[in-house]
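FORM 7B: Structural annotation worksheet

SECTION A. Query
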Amino acid sequence: MNAPRPLTPTEQRVLGTLMEKARTVPDTYPLSLNAVVSGCNQKTSREPVMNVSEIEAQAALDDLKALHLAIESHGSRVARWEHNLQRALAVPEQSAVLLGLLLLRGPQTAGELRLNAERWYRFADISSVEGFLHELAERAEDKGGPLVVLLPRAPGEREARWAHLLGGPVAIETRAAGAHQESAGGRFDPTSERIERLEAKLAALQATVARLCAELGVSPAGPESGADHAKTAD
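SECTION B. Predicted structure
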Protein backbone atom coordinates (compact mmCIF):
# COMPACT_ATOMS: atom_id res chain seq x y z
CA MET A 1 0.00 0.00 0.00
CA ASN A 2 1.19 3.56 -0.71
CA ALA A 3 2.33 5.76 2.15
CA PRO A 4 -0.45 8.00 3.53
CA ARG A 5 -0.48 11.77 3.45
CA PRO A 6 2.07 13.41 5.78
CA LEU A 7 1.07 12.90 9.40
CA THR A 8 0.72 15.80 11.82
CA PRO A 9 2.97 15.88 14.92
CA THR A 10 0.05 14.74 17.09
CA GLU A 11 -0.78 11.88 14.72
CA GLN A 12 2.88 10.85 14.74
CA ARG A 13 2.95 10.83 18.55
CA VAL A 14 -0.30 8.86 18.83
CA LEU A 15 0.81 6.29 16.26
CA GLY A 16 4.22 5.92 17.89
CA THR A 17 2.59 5.46 21.29
CA LEU A 18 0.32 2.69 20.01
CA MET A 19 3.31 0.95 18.45
CA GLU A 20 5.37 1.22 21.64
CA LYS A 21 2.68 -0.04 24.02
CA ALA A 22 1.87 -3.00 21.76
CA ARG A 23 5.40 -4.26 22.43
CA THR A 24 6.14 -3.05 25.96
CA VAL A 25 2.79 -3.57 27.76
CA PRO A 26 0.92 -6.20 25.73
CA ASP A 27 -1.29 -7.11 28.70
CA THR A 28 -3.03 -3.73 28.59
CA TYR A 29 -3.10 -3.42 24.81
CA PRO A 30 -5.13 -2.28 22.79
CA LEU A 31 -5.26 1.10 24.53
CA SER A 32 -8.13 3.19 25.80
CA LEU A 33 -8.21 6.90 24.97
CA ASN A 34 -6.94 7.75 28.46
CA ALA A 35 -4.00 5.36 28.05
CA VAL A 36 -3.19 6.88 24.66
CA VAL A 37 -3.12 10.39 26.15
CA SER A 38 -0.92 9.25 29.05
CA GLY A 39 1.49 7.54 26.65
CA CYS A 40 1.66 10.57 24.37
CA ASN A 41 2.50 12.88 27.27
CA GLN A 42 5.24 10.78 28.88
CA LYS A 43 8.27 12.77 29.98
CA THR A 44 10.70 9.96 29.13
CA SER A 45 11.51 8.33 25.79
CA ARG A 46 9.85 11.24 23.99
CA GLU A 47 11.37 13.96 21.80
CA PRO A 48 9.91 16.46 22.00
CA VAL A 49 7.83 16.22 25.17
CA MET A 50 4.22 17.07 24.27
CA ASN A 51 1.00 17.93 26.07
CA VAL A 52 -1.72 16.25 24.00
CA SER A 53 -5.32 16.72 25.15
CA GLU A 54 -8.04 14.06 24.95
CA ILE A 55 -9.75 16.00 22.16
CA GLU A 56 -6.52 16.17 20.14
CA ALA A 57 -5.75 12.49 20.74
CA GLN A 58 -9.26 11.43 19.70
CA ALA A 59 -9.07 13.50 16.52
CA ALA A 60 -5.68 11.97 15.71
CA LEU A 61 -7.00 8.45 16.32
CA ASP A 62 -9.97 9.09 14.03
CA ASP A 63 -7.68 10.40 11.30
CA LEU A 64 -5.26 7.47 11.69
CA LYS A 65 -8.23 5.13 11.40
CA ALA A 66 -9.27 6.82 8.14
CA LEU A 67 -5.71 6.28 6.88
CA HIS A 68 -5.86 2.58 7.90
CA LEU A 69 -3.00 3.15 10.34
CA ALA A 70 -5.11 2.51 13.46
CA ILE A 71 -7.96 0.15 14.31
CA GLU A 72 -10.77 0.75 16.81
CA SER A 73 -12.29 -2.15 18.71
CA HIS A 74 -15.50 -2.15 20.78
CA GLY A 75 -15.15 -5.38 22.74
CA SER A 76 -15.70 -3.58 26.06
CA ARG A 77 -17.53 -0.54 27.42
CA VAL A 78 -14.56 1.63 26.44
CA ALA A 79 -13.32 1.89 22.86
CA ARG A 80 -9.78 0.60 22.46
CA TRP A 81 -7.19 1.33 19.82
CA GLU A 82 -4.31 -0.49 18.17
CA HIS A 83 -1.94 0.42 15.37
CA ASN A 84 -2.06 -1.10 11.90
CA LEU A 85 1.20 0.27 10.50
CA GLN A 86 2.79 -3.00 9.45
CA ARG A 87 -0.18 -4.12 7.39
CA ALA A 88 -0.92 -0.64 6.03
CA LEU A 89 2.65 -0.01 4.86
CA ALA A 90 3.60 -3.64 4.24
CA VAL A 91 6.80 -3.54 6.29
CA PRO A 92 8.33 -6.27 8.49
CA GLU A 93 8.44 -6.18 12.29
CA GLN A 94 12.02 -4.87 12.42
CA SER A 95 11.24 -1.96 10.10
CA ALA A 96 8.10 -1.13 12.07
CA VAL A 97 10.14 -1.01 15.29
CA LEU A 98 12.59 1.46 13.77
CA LEU A 99 9.79 3.66 12.44
CA GLY A 100 8.06 3.61 15.82
CA LEU A 101 11.22 4.69 17.62
CA LEU A 102 11.82 7.50 15.14
CA LEU A 103 8.23 8.67 15.57
CA LEU A 104 8.64 8.90 19.35
CA ARG A 105 12.26 10.00 19.78
CA GLY A 106 13.12 11.95 16.65
CA PRO A 107 16.30 11.52 14.55
CA GLN A 108 18.74 8.92 15.90
CA THR A 109 21.90 7.12 14.87
CA ALA A 110 21.82 3.40 14.07
CA GLY A 111 23.56 2.74 17.38
CA GLU A 112 20.98 4.76 19.33
CA LEU A 113 18.16 2.95 17.56
CA ARG A 114 19.60 -0.44 18.47
CA LEU A 115 19.95 0.59 22.11
CA ASN A 116 16.48 2.17 22.31
CA ALA A 117 14.88 -0.85 20.65
CA GLU A 118 15.84 -3.26 23.48
CA ARG A 119 12.31 -3.45 24.92
CA TRP A 120 10.72 -3.61 21.47
CA TYR A 121 12.95 -5.95 19.51
CA ARG A 122 16.54 -7.18 19.95
CA PHE A 123 18.64 -6.53 16.89
CA ALA A 124 21.70 -8.76 16.55
CA ASP A 125 24.03 -5.84 15.81
CA ILE A 126 24.19 -2.36 14.37
CA SER A 127 24.68 -3.77 10.86
CA SER A 128 21.26 -5.39 11.14
CA VAL A 129 19.70 -2.06 12.10
CA GLU A 130 21.45 -0.33 9.21
CA GLY A 131 20.26 -3.01 6.80
CA PHE A 132 16.59 -2.40 7.62
CA LEU A 133 17.10 1.37 7.56
CA HIS A 134 18.58 1.20 4.09
CA GLU A 135 15.65 -0.95 2.94
CA LEU A 136 13.25 1.71 4.23
CA ALA A 137 15.31 4.47 2.59
CA GLU A 138 15.40 2.66 -0.76
CA ARG A 139 11.73 1.63 -0.79
CA ALA A 140 10.39 1.55 -4.33
CA GLU A 141 8.09 4.31 -5.53
CA ASP A 142 5.39 1.80 -6.49
CA LYS A 143 5.28 0.78 -2.81
CA GLY A 144 4.95 4.36 -1.60
CA GLY A 145 8.55 5.53 -1.74
CA PRO A 146 11.16 5.94 1.01
CA LEU A 147 10.03 5.97 4.64
CA VAL A 148 13.31 7.14 6.23
CA VAL A 149 16.22 9.36 5.24
CA LEU A 150 19.84 9.58 6.37
CA LEU A 151 20.48 13.18 7.45
CA PRO A 152 23.78 14.96 6.77
CA ARG A 153 26.08 14.77 9.77
CA ALA A 154 25.70 17.97 11.75
CA PRO A 155 28.71 19.88 13.16
CA GLY A 156 29.88 18.30 16.39
CA GLU A 157 28.16 14.96 15.70
CA ARG A 158 30.28 11.84 15.30
CA GLU A 159 27.64 9.93 13.31
CA ALA A 160 24.82 10.79 10.94
CA ARG A 161 21.26 10.37 12.16
CA TRP A 162 18.21 8.83 10.55
CA ALA A 163 14.76 10.45 10.42
CA HIS A 164 11.36 9.09 9.36
CA LEU A 165 9.42 10.60 6.45
CA LEU A 166 5.90 9.87 7.71
CA GLY A 167 5.50 13.57 8.46
CA GLY A 168 6.74 14.58 5.02
CA PRO A 169 10.23 15.68 3.87
CA VAL A 170 12.63 16.62 6.66
CA ALA A 171 13.71 20.27 6.64
CA ILE A 172 17.48 19.97 7.08
CA GLU A 173 17.90 23.73 7.55
CA THR A 174 15.25 23.83 10.27
CA ARG A 175 16.88 20.94 12.10
CA ALA A 176 20.29 22.62 11.99
CA ALA A 177 18.80 25.86 13.31
CA GLY A 178 17.07 23.96 16.07
CA ALA A 179 20.33 22.31 17.10
CA HIS A 180 21.97 25.74 17.29
CA GLN A 181 19.13 27.08 19.44
CA GLU A 182 19.38 24.10 21.79
CA SER A 183 23.08 24.82 22.25
CA ALA A 184 22.42 28.50 22.86
CA GLY A 185 19.60 27.65 25.26
CA GLY A 186 21.96 25.94 27.66
CA ARG A 187 21.92 22.30 26.60
CA PHE A 188 25.21 20.47 26.84
CA ASP A 189 27.16 20.95 23.61
CA PRO A 190 30.47 19.06 23.71
CA THR A 191 31.86 20.96 20.70
CA SER A 192 31.18 24.40 22.16
CA GLU A 193 32.54 23.38 25.55
CA ARG A 194 35.77 22.05 23.95
CA ILE A 195 36.26 25.28 21.98
CA GLU A 196 35.73 27.36 25.11
CA ARG A 197 38.35 25.31 26.99
CA LEU A 198 40.88 25.72 24.17
CA GLU A 199 40.26 29.46 23.96
CA ALA A 200 40.80 29.78 27.72
CA LYS A 201 44.07 27.83 27.51
CA LEU A 202 45.26 29.96 24.58
CA ALA A 203 44.51 33.17 26.47
CA ALA A 204 46.44 31.88 29.49
CA LEU A 205 49.43 30.92 27.32
CA GLN A 206 49.44 34.32 25.61
CA ALA A 207 49.42 36.05 29.00
CA THR A 208 52.34 33.89 30.18
CA VAL A 209 54.39 34.63 27.04
CA ALA A 210 53.72 38.35 27.37
CA ARG A 211 54.86 38.34 31.01
CA LEU A 212 58.07 36.41 30.25
CA CYS A 213 58.90 38.68 27.34
CA ALA A 214 58.41 41.73 29.56
CA GLU A 215 60.79 40.29 32.17
CA LEU A 216 63.43 39.50 29.51
CA GLY A 217 63.01 42.81 27.74
CA VAL A 218 62.25 41.29 24.34
CA SER A 219 59.40 41.61 21.89
CA PRO A 220 56.75 38.82 21.95
CA ALA A 221 57.55 38.29 18.23
CA GLY A 222 61.14 37.43 19.26
CA PRO A 223 63.55 35.97 16.67
CA GLU A 224 60.89 35.85 13.96
CA SER A 225 60.69 39.63 14.00
CA GLY A 226 64.49 39.87 13.54
CA ALA A 227 64.44 37.32 10.74
CA ASP A 228 61.72 39.21 8.93
CA HIS A 229 63.72 42.43 9.31
CA ALA A 230 66.81 40.75 7.85
CA LYS A 231 64.86 39.47 4.87
CA THR A 232 63.51 42.95 4.24
CA ALA A 233 67.03 44.40 4.37
CA ASP A 234 68.22 41.86 1.79
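SECTION C. Observations
Strands lie at 70-73, 80-83, 148-150, 162-164. Residues 73 and 79 are 6 Å apart (CA to CA).

SECTION D. Sign-off
Analyst initials: ____
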